[in-house]
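Here is an idea for our session: we take a single protein and study its fold together. To get us started, please write out a protein record for me. Start from the sequence, derive the backbone structure tokens from it, and show both lines together. Go ahead whenever you are ready, and we will take it from there:
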Amino acid sequence: MMTTLSLGEKIGFAPACEMLVVVRSSFYRWKAEPMNLATSDASSRAIPARALSEGERTLVRAELHSERFVDKAPREVYATLLEEGVHLCHWRTMYRILSQDGEVRERRNQARQPHYARPELMASGPNRVWSWDITKLRGPVRGVWFFLYVIMDIFSRYVVGWLVAEHEREALAHELIDAACAKQGIQPGELTLHADRGSPMVSQTVNDLLNKLGVGKSHSRPHVSNDNPYSESGFKTMKYHPTFPDHFMSIDNSRGFCGPYFLWYNEEHHHTALALLTPATVHYGRTEAVLAQRQQVLDAAYAAHPERFPHGLPKVAVPPSTVWINAPAVADEPTHLVQGCLDSTPAPKVNQPGAEPGSRAGTSPSACPAQRTLDAGEHRAILSPEQAAGGVVMTPLQ
């Protein structure tokens, strides 16, 4: 009310009430009482008659600062003085005096967790930001699980690599990331890899590999699952698929499911977030051609039956030009800005003329082992069945 009164004396009480969202009737009722017009500053308040004088407060401070009481709690000081026949004030008053002097704090060494900045990643083209994670697949009996590693491009939703193993191992993550980067022709400085803070994700082995490849790294905040939304959404899509079984009888059984599934997901699944384009269409730069063909169909449908389109010529939906992990609330500079282009800079192609994008037809026989790995659209995993149980990384299958 005092703020409203002060502002009202300058611009008028009605505008002041409206500006400060104060009910005018309440303000005028308050203003009509003379006692309310006095300032409410603490300095002008009358000192209670029972308050300690400044001399008494100084005496309390001196006693609390004395050598025998300097490390004692006010309750201990109060009880000790009472037993000695001295009463200065109540222990609550001692606390108030100490608090006014800034001498009350937590004495124990408390663990202070570091501040984790919210990751903000933007991709405006394929192979600019990848997200990867590991999910469990239920095994044949209770307590038995298989572990599915998946790397996804967040711009195109294209699964660039996957494998199934019986363990979570940083060596397996190293092999998969290295193979996926080689398959996609990733150059130093163009890719950021985002993950949560699982043990393989933050391991020194993976960190050394990313430094070697020139790949930036980003991690979710602890206990914040929606910092890695693309991987989580991809796992949900898989586990809600009609063909996803209740459990897998063996690791070969799980690989037999994942191969055809990821082939379908990349090449046939019309993704809602991509304007019903397939991940492969967006990832390999075929967006404009597909959209143009769709627009021709819509134009023909409009020409044949314009009365069925009350809003005029229909326009084909287009996918977003940029995607984010944690888009900033205001238009400021993101933590990691990854540049790219929707169609003018498609993912690097390593296949021979006439070969299907993502196929092995374009890999050279003399390429390194990682380049001979299978991509997400093929049906076999990186590990051989004999070695998967022991968690030993083998040369990728040819």
